[in-house]
Amino acid sequence: MPDTTPATDTQVDSTGPATGEGASARRLLEVDDVTLRFGGVVALNEVSFHINEGEILGLIGPNGAGKTTCFNVMTGVYQPTSGGVRFQGEPLGRRKKHEITRLGIARTFQNIRLFGTMTALENVLVGADAHHTTGVGSAVLRLPKHRREEKEGYERARELLKFMGLSKRANELARNLSYGDQRRLEIARALATDPTLLCLDEPAAGFNPAEKARLMELIRTIRDQGYTVLLIEHDMRLVMGVTDRIVVLKSARKFAEALPAEIRDNPAVIAAYLGVDENAS
Amino acid sequence: MSAVTDFFHGFRGRVAGLPKPVRIVLLVVAALLVYLLPILNPPFITTTDSDFASVLFSCSVYALVALGLNVVIGYAGLLDLGYVGFFAIGAYAVGVFGSAHGTLPWLLCVPLAIIFAMVSGILLGAPTLRVRGDYLAIVTLGFGEIIRLVLLNSAWLGAAAGISNVPSPTGPALFSIPHLDWSGGAPVVDLSTTTTVLEFGVRDATPFYWLALTVVIIVIFIDRLMQNSRVGRAWEATREDEDAAELMGVPTFRFKLLAFAIGACIGGLSGSLFAARQGFLNPDNFTILYSVLFVAMVVVGGQGNRWGVISAAFLLTWLPEKFRFLSEERYLLFGLALMALAIFRPQGLLPPRRAVRAIESEEEIEALEEGTAHA
Predict the structure, then answer these.
(1) d(CA B293, CA B312)
(2) Alpha carbon A268 to chain centroid distance?
(3) Between helices B2-17 and B354-374, what is the axis angle to 10°?
(4) Which of A64, A176, B113, B153 qualifies as a FRET site for A90, CA 20 to 30 Å off?
């Protein structure tokens, strides 16, 4: 596979050093020069980008470009070989996955990973428990702390299920839910951890156009409630319609970073994304 | 088979529909009947070839074991094939501090048994719970054998001869109750067979049974409170998908270690009960076969359902005693029954039913809301 020509890279960058809603916006998360190697395979190659507070950032690129790997580095699943991730100005370092979640980064999964034998409500409760500290002692003695946290957790879980339109499914097992409901439940569970940054990994995969439209609406609503959203998505219409800014990855490198309109008008990006140009050139 | 489950769940649903005072009265009556089993000697249930009270005592001890192992396997999803190790540690703690190297009464040995079992659980779990699935099973299998070999080879622990004169609990001899005799077809009060209330003697196992049953009931309550809380949810999430749980903020390693430690505590506790009745201990009481039997109880009963594993513990202890006359063949039949179960009902006799729990959780949140309204 031929490497990205540096010429294209600079060209795209120069057409529009994307600033989103202006340079004054606070940077919530910064990916600094992250390289990740698995033996000889380079999964991410000096990737840098940032997410501003309150924006919806799209992360796109052909299959295998490193989008999900990028998520995994941000959420502590992988440690970068070099470079690092800063969240709210603080380096994530070697923090454990559950610690990063408590810091405020939540995610969904490309291939749905719910707790199948638990009910929808319980799935969301697990997320809400992220900030709870009830241990065996207070659970067995039903101490006020347990009662307070349970009440708070149940309330939050019900609220989120209602928000996602899943109230009627609350007591159904997660594995018995329809595909769309499972995707929505994943978002509810992630939101329950009370994140600042919500990372959605292909939330529209397998959705029909009507469902996609509703999802777009939902993502906007989530942003309007004060969350920052990072979205991996293949559906270009959805990405163009909902994101404020787009980062394009290709072959483990950052290929471009621009406003949706600029991406749409840039044949190099379209070509890279669709992967048509490679054989021709 | 599913008719059995439906019957139990239907029964459960009907009981749950009754008003609370009625439910409590029903439960108390049921518990009383269970307590009085060795006195009533009901036909069919009573084992004719071996002492019924002793069999019931074993059933209770193994029910406790199954409850403990259910936390590890059923809730947290960690396959522990060396659970007999904790059982042995609990039993030997009573032997060592009550007889071999001390004269502590049984009641003071019990907390020691629990602590020793828990500490060994944490020591075993801390390094090994980082590995998954098959590896954990192998390491725990080794642990069970190591404990037995240490007991067998340590002179300080009595080596092959073991420890004798293990203390029993002490209780005042208050009054005697005659047993019922059904041998004539109708119940007759048998004045020659009596139980002296709270006298823990060699002759009569009934008070031991009562003690073990009481412990089982307490542990059932604790188990229930743990399961319906953040702790129970964290275990289940970890069992279902460890990575996803971790990414939802569950410190999975800590919760796995917790499950291991609690399982070990209950294992140690049941070992101390076993030692109290047995009176003497030797390494042969703690072979790997017991670990397998314990796992069978949890799997047969339905992993994750406390009533399922208790029923299985009862069945797997009671059946071989009931059909003792089949002597040699009974383990063959036992094996066939297990195979049949594995083929036709791999989820166990009474798998956990989630709908029931969901309803309970709703009631619970209502109760919590009422509680705050009062405050």
Answers:
(1) 10
(2) 25
(3) 20
(4) A64
Which among B42, B38, B32, B33 is positioned nearest to B177, based on CA atoms? B38
B233 Cβ under 8 Å from any chain A Cβ = yes
How much is the ipTM here?
0.86
- pLDDT tens for chain A, 281 residues long, are 444 333 333 334 433 344 444 445 789 999 999 999 998 899 999 999 999 999 999 999 888 889 999 999 999 999 999 999 999 999 998 899 999 999 999 999 999 999 998 999 999 999 999 999 999 999 999 999 999 999 999 999 999 999 999 999 999 999 999 999 999 999 999 999 999 999 999 999 889 999 999 999 999 999 999 999 999 998 888 898 999 999 999 888 998 888 888 887 888 777 776 655 444 43
Residue ranges per domain, chain B?
52-374
Largest CA distance in chain A: 71
For A119, phi and psi rounded to 5 degrees?
A: -75, 165
CATH 1.10.3470 fits B52-374, yes or no: yes
Mutation for B interface: A115, A133, A169, most B CBs within 10 A: A115
| Residue A102 touches chain B, beta carbons under 8 Å | yes
Of A214, A219, A163, nearest to A188 (Cα)?
Answer: A163
Sequence spans of domains, chain A: 1-102+238-281, 113-186
Per-position DSSP letters for B2-16, written without gaps between them: HHHHHHHHHHHHHHH
The CA distances from residue A228 to A125, A163, B211, in Å, are 22, 17, 58
Domain spanning A1-102+238-281, CATH architecture: 3-Layer(aba) Sandwich (3.40)
pTM of the model: 0.87
User: What does residue A102 show for φ and ψ, rounded to 5 degrees?
Assistant: -70, -25
